[in-house]
Structure formats: C-alpha cells, structure tokens
Amino acid sequence: EKVTGRISRAGKAPVKTACANRKGFTLLEMLLVLFILSLSIMLVFPSIRGLNDIKLKTTAKRVAADLIYARNHALRERQSYYVEALDEKIMITARNGRKKETLLPDKFRVEPLGNVIIFYPAGGSNGGRLEIKDGGKTYYSVKVESTGRIRVVSE
User: Is the peptide bond before 105 cis (omega within 30 degrees of 0)?
Assistant: First the structure.
C-alpha cells in the first residue's frame, strides 16, 4: 500500500493528508459554484429583458418614421394619405392608390386594429394613436396630433 504524506522531522512514519483520498466535491465547493452561477444569471437576465425593450422602442420609431413618410408625401403630392394598423403591419395608402406596407418584427403587434390616420395635403391630420405591443404589458405609443406632429411615447 502506498501512503502519501509528509515525513515528520523526527523520522517517524508518514502522516496521511486529507487530499490523498479525495474523490468528490465538498459541500462548500458545491455551494460556492451554485452561488456564482446564480449571481451570473441575476446579472445577465435583466440585460436580456432590456434587449426586448430596445427592439420594441426601435419598432415604434420605425412606425413613427412611416407616419412621417405619409405626412411628407401628403404635403409634397398635395393629396391625402391614409395609414392603417393591421395587426402585424402598417399599410400606407395614397388617394391615387399607391401603397406602402411595413411589417413589424415577430412578436410585435400594433393596436388599435383598423384605426385609420389620415394626413391631409396641408400637413394636418385627423390625429390618432398607435400602440406597439410585445404581447405582454410593455408597449410604446406613437401619437399623431391634429397638427401632424408625430412622437413616440413610452407607456
């Protein structure tokens, strides 16, 4: 039998150490690993949730850009433009029949459905509000004032 350990100064028999026969992890080591894992999850999870909020805000800004597009074309071409919310897309239609469609990213919806915002040739509008939602409670509103002003608001 091989014994590992130290020989004392007096030349006596070797002393066995605890590390020589160790085959597993101690409870303390396991708890330390679990603590580090849980700490890293706590740090990463909020940033993942924040990423969804960034995507939602970006989508709301894209919808606002489409509304600005409709208003600018109504002014330039001197004809009304109609913007309609259709669940997962925005449909812009000119009085002459020209259409532009913008699809929203997966999981995002626009409400209220069927709401039509009209931009008049003079630059004004009938006003309205579109809500961009992610399926949960979080959403952004794109508000259109009767003057034609468009802004994105966090709700």
Answer: no
